[in-house]
Write a structure and sequence with these properties.
- There is one protein chain.
- By secondary structure, the protein is α+β, with helices and mostly antiparallel strands.
- The protein folds into 2 domains: 75 residues, Arc Repressor Mutant, subunit A (Orthogonal Bundle); 94 residues, Beta Polymerase, domain 2.
- Helices cover 48% and strands 25% of the residues.
- It is built from 9 helices and 7 strands.
- The strands form 2 sheets. It has a 4-stranded mixed β-sheet with strand order 6-5-4-7.
- Helix 3 packs across helix 4 and helix 6 packs antiparallel against helix 8.
């Protein structure tokens, strides 16, 4: 879908990297290793996004650190496009509406760090209908052409046992309490 609008695969990777999770930061060399592309191609796209005001930079020693400009007028729209590109919006809405007493949904793993991958990792907080969830996951996997791995737990269990063991900060995708979003 997004490939029809944006012809540069490198630019798409950068948008996924920085606009899925606004906490993500990266250096040019790290992006080169992650994407498996030449530093020149990545640098050109980074410069375009920086010149457009979509990325902010910080000089740390002789390295330039990049991150999304959350104050950019198009940040929220780009974030929504990236989420829709990955199919996460469909997963979340279906899950939230019909699963039971769902409190929050978090994204973890590669996607939470802005990297595309074959597996979507979700953590669902609350009481859910597990049989119905399995049906939804099977249908959604076909739709988004990715595997979905999920964990269901209570809020207290998440805060005390699971969250401290996660390597990276989980990304809140949905909350029953809209003030937490």
């Amino acid at each position: 879908m997004i490939e029809a609008l944006i012809s540069s695969k490198t630019r798409i990777k950068l948008l996924l990297k920085f606009f899925l999770n606004s906490d993500t930061t990266a250096y040019l060399r790290g992006l080169e290793a992650e994407f498996g592309e030449s530093s020149n191609a990545i640098r050109l796209e980074l410069n375009k996004l920086e010149n457009a005001g979509m990325l902010l930079t910080e000089q740390i020693g002789n390295k330039k650190l990049f991150r999304a400009n959350t104050g950019h007028p198009l940040f929220r729209e780009i974030n929504n496009i990236v989420i829709k590109h990955l199919g996460l919006d469909q997963v979340i809405e279906q899950v939230a509406q019909r699963l039971g007493d769902l409190e929050q949904v978090f994204l973890t793993g590669d996607f939470a760090q802005g990297s595309d991958g074959p597996i979507i990792d979700l953590i669902l907080l609350g009481e859910v209908d597990r049989a119905y969830l399995l049906q939804l996951v099977e249908k959604t996997e076909k739709l988004v052409k990715r595997k979905i791995r999920y964990l269901i737990c209570e809020s207290q269990e998440f805060e005390t046992q699971i969250k401290p063991q996660l390597d990276d900060k989980p990304l809140l995708l949905w909350s029953r309490d809209e003030n937490k979003m």
